[in-house]
Design goal:
It is found in: Cytoplasm. The mean pLDDT is about 85. The protein starts with 6 loop residues before the first helix and ends with a helix. It is built from 4 helices and 7 strands; from the N terminus they run αβββαβαβββα. The chain has a domain of about 70 residues. The protein has a 5-stranded mixed β-sheet with strand order 3-2-1-4-5, covered by helices on one side. A two-stranded antiparallel sheet has the order 6-7.
Length: about 170
């Protein structure tokens, strides 16, 4: 079990997010991104760290690469890992990025022909308290375009999760 990190560590992590944010590319950088139907996109990946209920020390880091548009599995990597940082809201990247980055590096070493053109990340990207979540962190460090696909919305255009926000997202969609 992890104890609460000292305030100095949180300040260090905030500083690291600020430093890495300067390297973030927010516009299309690949030809396929601006083509109709993403023509030229051939490989997509998804990454996640899955936690074992009741175990605060171990998790499973997972990477899957699929063909696009067929979505056939081309590559899978799952590794049990020992967590090195506690979960702290707004700092998920410091808990998960090292393991997800390792999975991408193993892929690049073992099957460089299958390196994805985009990675979908189970976590926020720009919709984050400091506009630099796990997806942004992984994208900057890996050099790959990453998209955050989070289960929980942290922030959108300055709107934080609140009763008003809940009413907006649970209302009828047009």
């Amino acid at each position: 079990m992890f104890s609460a990190p000292p305030e100095a560590l949180l300040k260090q992590w905030e500083s690291e997010q600020d430093r890495l944010r300067l390297q973030l590319i927010q516009e299309d950088s690949e030809d396929w991104q601006s083509r109709t139907h993403f023509s030229g996109l051939e490989r997509v990946a998804g990454v996640d760290l899955s936690y074992i209920k009741g175990d605060h020390v171990h998790a499973c880091a997972q990477l899957a690469v699929l063909s696009y548009p067929e979505l056939q599995v081309l590559y899978e990597d799952s590794q049990m890992v020992a967590l090195t940082a506690p979960y702290i809201a707004g700092f998920l990247a410091f808990r998960e990025t090292p393991f997800l980055l390792d999975a991408l590096k193993r892929l690049e070493k073992n099957r460089p022909d299958l390196v994805p053109q985009v990675v979908f990340v189970d976590g926020n990207g720009l919709f984050h308290y400091r506009e630099f979540g796990l997806a942004c962190h992984l994208g900057v460090l890996s050099g790959l375009p990453c998209v955050g696909v989070a289960k929980n919305l942290l922030q959108v255009q300055g709107v934080r999760k609140s009763e008003e926000h809940q009413a907006q997202v649970s209302g009828p969609f047009t």
